Structures are given as C-alpha cells and as structure tokens.
## 1
Amino acid sequence: MLKIAASDNEYYNTSGELKFFIVDDSMAPMIEKGSILIVDKSIQEPGRILVLVHDGKIIARKVRRLADGGFEIIPDNPEYPSYRAEIIHPLGAVIATARIAF
C-alpha cells in the first residue's frame, strides 16, 4: 500500500509526476518499505510497475496483460499473492525510487 508523499496540493507537480511513500513490503526486495516512488502519469501501459487504485487503496505492482484481456497484478514479495483483475485504474508508472537514510 502507498501513502501520498505530501499534502494533496504538493504531491503533484507541473511535470506530470506523482510522489508516494511505500508503507508495506509487498514490492520488496525490488522496492523496500519506506521508499519514495516517482510516478509518471503519462505512462500507464501494463508490462511495468504501475501505481493503481484497487479496492479503495493505492498500490504499486507489476502488471501483466493476459491473453484474454484481463490483467495479472503481481507483487514482488512472494508472501503476497498475485491476483487477476478485469479492469485496472492506473495512476502512472514508477520511473524512479529513492530511500532516505537517517
């Protein structure tokens, strides 16, 4: 699951990028909990890591288009199950990640 990186007015900028914090380990080890995601709203096709709205939550997952037109939603962490979706609601593709060390 993800959390918007700043207030609603600050997370979107004029370059078309969104910023989110990863608040779980569903995409570990590829993307670690606590990472910041930079998401390009103009890229929304499957075959990438997309940020999606699913069941009222914002999530980051690998998305694969299936031959029958559906989608496979795939976490990187094997402790989380993959699942099928008929429709996806992408916000954009992850184009960069960052970790802040304290």
## 2
Amino acid sequence: MQITEPLQAAAARVLGAKCSLENVYLEQLETFGDPKRDPRTRVISVAYYGLIDCARFDKALVRAGDVTVGRVMAPWDGESGGPATLWVQKVRRCHLRLTTK
C-alpha cells in the first residue's frame, strides 16, 4: 500500500494487478489490528470482499494465468481440526459476516 493511497484504492489496485479484475464492487468487511499480533512491528490487515459476475471472473482467470481458484477449509465450531490459529479466527469472522449480510 502506498503511503498516500486510500485503503479501497489499494484493494482495487491489488485485485487488478493480481487477478486482472477492474471495476469490481468492493466493500470493506473487517479490520484486524491487535497490537500484540506481531511482536516485531505494528500490523493492520483490512479484509475486503468483491462482487463480480461469474463470466467476468472466468475470463479474468484465463487472462491472469497464474491465479488459481481455491477453497478455504477451516475448522468451524463443533469440528475437529486442531487449535484455531489467528488466521483461522479471521477467516471464521469474515465468513460469519458474509453469511449474515
């Protein structure tokens, strides 16, 4: 992220650069900023989600070349899978927020 760049502009720029997707509706979903997260430095993460037509997404996959569609699997409440890491907790919170929108 550039020092003078707004968060949403940075998210759109990275999405365009990495996935060949432009003019995508983006909305900030969650911000993570626990000061104890990384003892080396202050880290703030901002999660965005985007809404895009499936046909545009398929075309972007072909253009980008090195982008792969994946599925995130995380231990949800009541499932086994080891201790929940901070990353898994973030994924769970974002998933909950998206499913209740």
## 3
Amino acid sequence: MKDSPSRRATKRTVIDQSVLGRLGLDPNDVIAIEQECIMLRPVTGSERLSEEQGVWTLRTGQPISAATTDGLLWQIRHERDSANLKSGDKD
C-alpha cells in the first residue's frame, strides 16, 4: 500500500539535507511511503507523463517557450503535409 504525503496535508516528513543530497532529492520533492519499509525516492519520475482533461501532458520541470512549441508544431504539420502529398502522388 503506497501513500503520498501530498494527499495528507497535515503530515510532513523532515529529511536531513545531507540525506536529500545523497538521494538526489530536492526539499519539495514528493516521496513514496511504503508501509513495509522506508523507501525514499522521487515520485516525479513516474508521474512525468499524465493525462489531464483528455490531453497528454509531459512535465519536464523546465518552462518551454511559445516559440519552441510553435516551431515544433510547424515542423510536425509540415512533415505530415509532405507525407500526405507524397502518398497522393502514388495513386
């Protein structure tokens, strides 16, 4: 049975800064708590890709500029249009 401290707002876990550093955890990282043992590991790795309101969302921890997303969207549309035009020539 796993639980997440973020679901229980009244309880907090304090972990020494040196332990956080050795485990590669940041002070505000969410950790998984298992009843059989104490296992500290970041939860973010397993929850980076999630579905939100019917849209798949990838969390990278870094902001993405509008220019970057616009450029990628243009590239995908251009590749799709090129592929559609090529497949239309074969008929």
